[in-house]
């Protein structure tokens, strides 16, 4: 981790990414944030990515350091991001916002739609921002999104990924919510725990945990979705009986699984250990078993490749277990498998997850390391390939962090009693702990 950071600090400090082929740290970082970080001239950004990466990082730095520099910068950023709600007549925000002038729009390639994994993965950060700043608008607007989702939820709790969130100028009569507001509409019938669907289900559980398990709507949505997943998407491969979560397109299963889906092993385990019915309940034991089995499949996605590194997604085929998905032999330095290794080790103490993590880390060291930092791989089957000249910020924030925490015998992180991770692996104290230890705004 220090190796990657030193390369970033030397060659790309303050930029979004390091180009790893081109050529006390906390306080230097704090000083840069204080003296240089500004969003006043920044144009269109992804509301989702900026929330989970930038806002979440600032808030986590504040939560651990109590240095008001980070909270002030987070409040300034949050005040710009919240303008993504302006102009939406459904209460569902737009996917992009210009930080300098507040203009918002949906992502162009999404056909004018909003994505459930994006507007459903901003609540943990904005609830924390409201709690610590004393400004309730952030929590209210983002929580209202889940209230809408709860009302329009499909019977099995699994949400299509595209949602029409603005009906201005629509040539037809719109449907209404119970409160009289305009009802968002699903515009496709693809359901996935991978790209564009994934973290919605993660935050159903994590919002409930963040609030001290006192807001049952979120847990009910999570349990309903997990039941739906077991009923309609959970599959076994042949010949090895590997557990995986398929996609559904217009009611037909697509037997593929993104590396992104690998977060679900840890989420299922965390849900089981915090189940209101108890860990020994039939539901919790089912979820823990599924989480373990799914994480084993994700380990196999690494172990069966020539480099020991997983591709972007795999396709499951009868008699072959899985093959690399078409057009997806690359590895983008993704963290999701290591996230589940860490959570499962943290909860169960089973050393196999440490062993798997160390094995995968050694492969990353061997095939992704450059003279500056680390880079993506173009083909995980090519042991002679060179790393690409690209390293996303989530490689530090998530991949290396989870691999480090997995091996750390003295971590202060406590997933059952003290912390919740946002989807970018930025830990925050849960609200009951903040109330006990102090720090929340009283204004």
Name its key features.
three-stranded antiparallel sheet; mainly alpha
What does this entry look like structurally?
The protein is mainly alpha-helical and 443 residues long. It is built from 15 helices and 16 strands. The strands form six sheets. The protein has a three-stranded antiparallel sheet. A three-stranded antiparallel sheet has the order 4-5-6. A three-stranded antiparallel sheet has the order 7-10-11, with no helix packed on it. α6 runs antiparallel to α7 (137-152) and α12 packs parallel to α14 (394-407).
Instruction: Output the structural class.
Output: mainly alpha
Count the E strands.
Answer: 16
Strand content: 5-15%
Tally of alpha and pi helices: 15
Distance between the termini: 39 Å
| Average predicted local confidence, pLDDT | 95
Q: How many strands, what sense, and barrel or not for the largest sheet?
A: 3 strands, antiparallel
Radius of gyration: 21 Å
Give helix % range.
40-55%
Strand order of the largest sheet: 1-2-3
Low-confidence stretches: none
Entry summary:
With 443 residues, the chain is mainly α.
Describe the protein's topology.
Layout: H1 2-12, H2 25-36, E1 44-46, H3 47-65, H4 68-81, E2 96-98, E3 104-105, E4 114-115, H5 116-119, H6 123-133, H7 137-152, E5 162-164, E6 185-186, E7 190-191, H8 198-210, H9 216-232, E8 234-236, E9 243-245, E10 247-249, E11 252-254, E12 256-258, H10 263-273, H11 282-303, E13 313-317, E14 321-324, H12 336-348, H13 352-368, H14 394-407, E15 419-421, E16 427-429, H15 431-437
Helix pairs in contact: 3-4, 3-6, 4-6, 6-7, 8-9, 10-11, 10-12, 11-12, 12-13, 12-14
């Amino acid at each position: 981790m220090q190796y990657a950071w030193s390369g970033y600090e030397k060659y790309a400090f303050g930029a979004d990414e390091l180009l790893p082929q081109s050529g006390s740290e906390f306080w230097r970082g704090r000083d840069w944030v204080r003296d240089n970080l500004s969003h006043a001239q920044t144009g269109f950004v992804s509301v989702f990515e900026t929330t989970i990466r930038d806002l979440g990082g600032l808030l986590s730095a504040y939560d651990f350091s109590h240095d008001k520099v980070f909270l002030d910068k987070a409040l300034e950023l949050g005040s710009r991001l919240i303008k993504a709600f302006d102009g939406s007549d459904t209460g569902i925000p737009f996917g992009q916002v210009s930080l300098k002038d507040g203009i918002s729009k949906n992502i162009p390639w999404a056909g004018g739609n909003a994505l459930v994994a994006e507007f459903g993965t901003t609540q943990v950060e904005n609830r924390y921002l409201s709690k610590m700043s004393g400004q309730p608008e952030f929590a209210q607007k983002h929580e209202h999104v889940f209230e809408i989702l709860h009302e329009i939820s499909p019977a099995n709790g699994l949400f299509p990924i595209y949602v029409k969130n603005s009906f201005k100028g629509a040539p037809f009569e719109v449907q209404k919510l119970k409160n009289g507001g305009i009802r968002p509409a699903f515009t496709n019938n693809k359901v996935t725990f991978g790209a564009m669907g994934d973290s919605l289900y993660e935050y159903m559980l994590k919002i409930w945990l963040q609030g001290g398990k006192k807001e049952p709507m979120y847990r009910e949505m999570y349990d309903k979705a997990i039941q739906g997943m077991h009923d309609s998407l959970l599959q076994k491969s042949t010949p090895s009986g590997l557990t995986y979560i398929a996609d559904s397109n217009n009611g037909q299963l697509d037997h593929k699984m993104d590396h992104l889906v690998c977060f679900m092993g840890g989420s299922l385990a965390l849900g089981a250990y915090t189940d209101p019915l108890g860990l020994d309940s039939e539901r919790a034991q089912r979820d823990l078993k599924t989480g373990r089995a799914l994480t084993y499949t994700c380990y196999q996605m690494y172990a069966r490749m020539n480099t020991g590194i997983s591709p972007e997604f795999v396709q499951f085929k009868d008699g072959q277990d899985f093959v690399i998905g078409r057009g997806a032999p690359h590895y983008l330095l993704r963290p999701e498998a290591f996230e589940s290794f860490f959570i499962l080790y943290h909860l169960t103490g089973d050393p196999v997850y440490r062993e798997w993590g160390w094995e995968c880390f050694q492969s990353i060291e061997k095939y992704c390391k450059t003279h500056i930092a680390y880079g993506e791989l173009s083909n995980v089957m090519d042991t002679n390939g060179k790393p690409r000249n690209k390293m996303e910020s989530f490689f530090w924030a998530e991949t290396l962090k989870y691999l480090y925490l997995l091996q750390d015998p003295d971590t202060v992180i406590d997933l059952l009693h003290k912390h919740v991770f946002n989807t970018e692996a930025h830990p925050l104290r849960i609200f009951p702990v903040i109330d006990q230890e102090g720090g929340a705004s009283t204004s």
